[in-house]
Design goal:
The structure holds two protein chains of two kinds. Chain A has helices at residues 3-12, 38-44, and strands spanning 20-25, 28-33, 53-56, 59-60, 77-85. Chain A is an alpha+beta fold. Chain B is of the alpha/beta class. In chain B, helix 3 packs parallel to helix 4 and helix 7 packs parallel to helix 9.
Chain lengths: 87, 271
């Protein structure tokens, strides 16, 4: 669905826009190959999905089984959190 | 006196009602945090020495350069401990609700230790935000344990809003100042139906014992153990203090007097 927009952006801005997507992960800008899933993102950071929780554009993903089928789009904001020491 | 009578008395001495929150029974009235330990090994040993079942954790961003290294789940067995996530560091109802949803998605339980902080210096709760977040989260099926101050009216409103436990502070978070307002804590305990758990400010075993002697159902602490010179030993002391304070409360203290009264008979003295 978003493909035509990506191509249009690539023509006007950068030549590789349809090959990578730019996203924000935990407040930092990152690039991923276009078509990457949430599972791919975790894999790229060597993160065990069982130890983290992912929020995708402010929506908490409650089903880890769905990580592989959720595609990351250009401009998405992802938060990856986990449990740390606290009182 | 027969052996049977002795053993009945011994059982009576330790008898207590189960410690239940929202229908779930917990084996220890002491709950502990996992923050500020010098090492994960020390933390694990201290938690074990405390005898606690409920262990609190915080929700934070993963450091993408360090991966899973800092995950508490690498150091705490979720089959052995009941993981109670908190919303520490949240300064609005909206932020606390977001953190609670993230915590629930970890998949362990729907319980949350709700904190909505109102001020950085004192870390005192924003009670308006706390009530608002409690209502939202209860509506979403959370079991909310609400960290609050020792104000009775707020405690009553939290109970009305559906909190499964109300957690008034002994003194500010991390202060170690002990129980500053025992009368207010007693009042909250007397007026509420849900369990009352003193949370924050306990600095040593005396404080834990004194808090339990007010009749509260349990205590949650972190810094009092983690910041002790020997956290494992202090965890053990806190375990004993919570048990002692509970037993002391159930036993019912003697009335206080302004004057002395001899313990030994006045009769039978020599001429």
């Amino acid at each position: 669905m978003r493909q035509p927009v990506a191509i249009f952006q690539s023509m006007s801005q950068q030549s590789v826009a349809n090959e990578t997507v730019s996203l924000t992960v935990n407040g930092e800008q990152r690039d991923l190959p276009a078509g990457s899933s949430v599972a791919d993102l975790l894999q790229s950071h060597n993160l065990d999905p069982r130890l983290v929780v992912v929020e995708h554009n402010r929506l908490v993903l409650r089903d880890r089984a769905a990580y592989a089928s959720i595609t990351i789009n250009d401009g998405d904001a992802i938060e990856i959190v986990h449990f740390v020491g606290g009182g | 006196m027969t052996g049977g009578t002795l053993s009945t008395h011994a059982t009576h001495a330790t008898h207590d009602v189960p410690f239940e929150i929202a229908g779930r029974e917990f084996r220890s009235r002491l709950m502990v945090g996992t923050g500020k330990y010098r090492s994960n090994e020390e933390m694990s040993a201290a938690i074990e020495a405390s005898g606690s079942e409920v262990v609190t954790v915080a929700v934070r961003r993963v450091d993408l350069d360090r991966g899973n290294d800092e995950s508490m789940l690498r150091h705490l067995d979720p089959d052995r401990y009941f993981l109670l996530a908190n919303t520490a560091g949240c300064y609005s109802a909206e932020e606390a609700v977001r953190y609670a949803r993230l915590a629930r998605a970890a998949g362990f339980n729907e319980w949350i230790k709700l904190e909505v902080i109102g001020d950085e210096e004192t870390l005192l709760p924003d009670v308006a935000g706390l009530l608002e977040a409690t209502k939202v989260l209860v509506g979403e099926g959370f079991k909310v344990m609400a960290y609050t101050n020792e104000d009775l009216i707020t405690a009553l409103r939290l109970e009305e809003a559906g909190a499964v436990a109300v957690m008034p502070l002994a003194s500010p978070i991390g202060s170690g100042l002990g129980l500053l307002n025992p009368q207010a804590i007693r009042t909250i305990k007397r007026r509420l139906t849900v369990p009352v758990i003193v949370d924050a400010g306990v600095g040593c075993a005396t404080d834990a014992c004194a808090a339990m002697e007010q009749g509260v159902d349990g205590i949650l602490m972190n810094t009092g153990i983690a910041a002790a010179s020997d956290p494992v030993r202090m965890a053990h002391a806190m375990k004993l203090a919570v048990e002692a304070g509970r037993a002391s409360f159930l036993a019912g203290r003697m009335p206080k007097r302004e004057t002395a009264m001899p313990s030994s008979p006045l009769e039978g003295m020599l001429d």
